[in-house]
Amino acid sequence: MRTTRLLAAAAVSAIAAITLAGCAGSPAAGDTPEAAADPTSLVLALVPSQDQNGLVETAAPLTDYLSDELGIEVTGVVSKDYQAAVEAMGAGQAQIGFLPSLQLWQANDMYGADVVLQTERNGNISYPAQFMTNNPDKYCDDAPVERDGMLFCNGADAMTGPAGLDSITKVKGAKVAVLGPGSPAGYIYPILALQEAGLDTDSDIDQLPVTANDASVLAVYNGDAEVGFSFWDARTIVKKDTPDVGQKVVVFAMTEEIPNDGVALSSDLSPELRERIATALEDFSNTAEGSEVLQSIYSITKLAPADASSLDVVARAAQALGLQ
Question: Domains in the chain, start-ordered, CATH in brackets?
Answer without folding.
Answer: 6-123+260-320 (3.40.190.10), 127-259 (3.40.190.10)
